[in-house]
Design a protein that fits this description.
The chain has helices at about 5-10, 65-75, 85-115, 125-150, 160-180, 185-215, 220-250, 255-280, 285-300, 305-310, 335-345; strands at about 10-15, 20-25, 30-35, 325, 350-355, 365, 370-375, 375, 390-395. The chain is mostly helical. Strand 1 (about 10-15) and strand 2 (about 20-25) form a beta hairpin. Helix 3 (about 85-115) packs across helix 7 (about 220-250) and helix 5 (about 160-180) runs antiparallel to helix 6 (about 185-215). The longest helix is centred in the first third of the chain and has 30 residues, at about 85-115. It is flat, with a radius of gyration of 27 Å.
Length: about 400
């Protein structure tokens, strides 16, 4: 049995990723007692063993074989310590949006097949084939153009482009549902819809890779990505089973089908918003950098990642552009002796920051030629002792 002195003494500490360290002490019965409460509820809580009960060598989850198997299949190995703290809320909302999108997609696919003439004896096979090929070729061309145009922006604005991709996917499915109502414009409508879906594929795939990199905390990107795919497959399978029950009920009533699509689209957009809002990215893109710097210049303190992520706008195109000048010569900051004295008065840091609001565009100038390497700040002394990571993505 441990004495009172050993009970108070901390034996060791451990830290996973960006989580706060937790300490380990000796319990009265000689076992290890960890400080701090777990934040993942029943998914990571070990079952409590009764006196004299042996939990076996299978670990704390051995007493719950069903949950243990489900956890091993759908969650990354080492969960929750092997992933970021925002992993679970994001994945829950992402599963909701995937389920809603699966049902909406079934309604849209049914409408496209009706428009192509499935079930119509007068429909021409060659006409349907031509429409399908034109639709696919338009999408392929759009995929290439979009990747060239916005490929470099998808990493640093992963949340915004992820939300944009899902909203655009809803617009594409709406066009597919409306296409059979206007047969004259059917080919053009489904081609535009497929163009939008191909853009969704590029934006969604690229942002998923960026978010997987953020969530993986033990160099386990492959495991996190594979389990995300498993979760999506389970959700899509559930959506497929529900679709088999739903489609016969709404196929003969276009108004009911359209009403179901509107409700599912609203749920899809809301779940997507909650999912990306739950993310707390620890790197600085242009918008988060502007928030952090503005807060620092106004209050003299560095904004926490959680606060900056909550303040960051999630719609692309609605953020005022910030002009950044990194590692510039001193003569770009000042043009006279008086300006230099005013700038360095009481200044002790080995860098200079200037926030110029006199221009039509707000300009931030950072003077330290050792910082900037082709737009990526590799060491930023202003943020040295803060929770942000040192690699700053500036687009």
């Amino acid at each position: 049995m441990a004495d009172s002195a050993s009970l108070r003494m901390q034996l060791c500490t451990e830290q996973f990723g960006s989580r706060a360290p937790r300490g380990c002490r000796a319990a009265a019965d000689g076992s290890l007692q960890w400080d701090g409460a777990r934040r993942w509820g029943w998914l990571s809580r070990a079952p409590t063993a009764k006196p004299g009960q042996d939990t076996g060598s299978g670990g704390p989850w051995a007493a719950l074989p069903a949950l243990s198997g489900l956890r091993a299949v759908l969650l990354p190995q080492g969960f929750p310590d092997s992933v970021s703290p925002d992993y679970l809320p994001y994945q829950l909302w992402d599963s909701v949006q995937a389920f809603a999108s699966s049902l909406s997609g079934s309604l849209a696919t049914q409408a496209v097949l009706q428009g192509l003439g499935v079930g119509d004896a007068k429909a021409s096979v060659s006409a349907a084939t031509s429409t399908w090929l034109l639709k696919d070729s338009t999408g392929m061309l759009g995929r290439i153009i979009f990747a060239w145009w916005k490929g470099s922006k998808l990493d640093c604005n992963a949340k915004q482009w992820r939300l944009f991709a899902d909203v655009l996917n809803d617009i594409a499915m709406f066009l597919e549902i409306m296409a059979p109502m206007y047969p004259v414009f059917f080919t053009m409508t489904v081609s535009i819809s497929n163009l939008a879906k191909c853009i969704v594929g590029v934006a969604g795939g690229a942002t998923r890779a960026a978010l997987t990199m953020h969530q993986a905390r033990r160099n386990n990107m492959a495991d996190v990505s594979a389990k995300d795919s498993s979760q999506e497959t389970v959700v899509n399978l559930a959506g497929l089973l529900v679709s088999l029950l739903m489609l016969p009920l709404v196929s003969d009533c276009p108004s009911l089908s359209f009403g179901c699509f509107i409700l599912l689209t609203a749920l899809h957009i809301y779940a997507n918003y909650r999912a990306v809002r739950a993310l707390v990215l620890e790197t600085l893109n242009e918008s988060r950098l502007q928030l952090v710097l503005k807060h620092f210049l106004q209050r003299g303190e560095v904004l926490e990642p959680a606060s900056a992520n909550q303040m960051e706008p999630l719609w692309t195109g609605f953020w005022p552009s910030l002009s950044l000048s990194l590692g510039v010569p001193l003569h770009h900051l000042v043009s006279s002796v008086s300006e230099l004295k005013q700038l360095i008065e009481g200044h002790r840091e080995p860098y200079l920051l200037r926030w110029n609001q006199s221009h039509r565009k707000q300009v931030l100038t950072i003077s330290d030629g050792l910082w900037c390497v082709k737009g990526e700040i590799t060491s930023w002394r202003l943020l040295w002792n803060c929770p942000w990571k040192l690699s700053i993505s500036v687009c």
